[in-house]
Amino acid sequence: MYYILNQPIKSNQLILRALMQFKGISYKTALLIIAQLNLGKKCFVHKLPKYKIDLLNKFVKQFFLVNADLTQFHYKSISKLILIGSYKGFRHRKFLPVRGQRTRSNAETRRAQNKTFKKF
């Protein structure tokens, strides 16, 4: 069992697919990471030496927001909008659509009645 970014990864998996499992890393981002570190696109995780996996961990932690860091960044940006009292923050606080969608005939899921207030 191999660990990338403190998460277990199947050893018989392509490195491209293994990177795409993380929140915040898309296909293009995974290709960019592979190109920067000179890893093969068709390389499997179990064929990577330990120092390449360590290099991969350091590179991703240094240049990308992934998993919990990305989620925390989103929560902080939303809470900042709520705190400064902007219109977008008001819409987030009232659980209404934020980007100008109509609410008279649509947005049933966003306007659901029994939502509990989240503290951001």
Using brief descriptors, characterize the structure shown.
single chain, about 120 residues, mainly alpha, Helicase, Ruva Protein, domain 3, 30s ribosomal protein s13, domain 2, 5 helices
Would you spell out the secondary-structure blueprint of this structure?
Elements: E1 2-4, E2 7-9, H1 15-20, H2 27-36, H3 50-63, H4 68-84, H5 87-93
Antiparallel strand pairs: 1-2
Helix pairs in contact: 4-5
Describe this protein's structure:
- This protein is mostly helical.
- It has 2 domains: 62 residues, Orthogonal Bundle (Helicase, Ruva Protein, domain 3), CATH 1.10.8; 54 residues, Ribosomal protein S13/S18, C-terminal domain (30s ribosomal protein s13, domain 2).
- β1 and β2 form a beta hairpin.
- It is elongated.
- The longest helix has 17 residues.
- α4 packs across α5.
Please state the average pLDDT score. Answer: 87
Instruction: Name the helicity range.
Output: 40-55%
How does the helix and strand content classify structurally?
Answer: mainly alpha
What is the CATH class name of the largest domain?
A: Mainly Alpha
In short:
The chain is mainly α and 120 residues long.
